[in-house]
Amino acid sequence: MTRALDWLARTIIVALSLIATLSIIGSIAAIPSGSIEQRLRMDMAHQPTELPDDPRSSPDTETRGGDVSRAQGTGASKLVALPPSPPRNALEPWLESITYALIAIAALLAAGVFLLWRALGHWRRLADAAEPRI
């Protein structure tokens, strides 16, 4: 019975260690750094592009990404890309990273509990073996 429990404890420790490792990697990868697309959308807001007079004559009439609004100029219509909406909360971009970090902490604590459980079992066996028999 103890061999089965030892095997189970080892398997659980390996699984928890893998979860913690992947969560740490996910946490680092989820750190918001602002992608190139976000930077380009911000630049597009400052540099409006002009459309031809007849939008049906242009083969590429679709707009790609972001919100678009038309501003009437002096006879020519302009297409202005608006920047992405700011997050509602200051922590919103960090929530995914924080979640992964909390999962990693929980997995490491659980693995620590299993390691202590195994260590206490080994210490108990050593104490029983060292105890003089009467």
Automatic annotation (TrEMBL):
Membrane-spanning residues: 12-31, 98-117
Positions of the UniProt region annotated as Disordered: 42-87
Compositionally biased spans, kind Basic and acidic residues: 53-67
Keywords for this protein: Membrane, Transmembrane, Transmembrane helix
Name by which UniProt lists this protein: Transmembrane protein
Organism encoding this protein: Sphingomonas cavernae
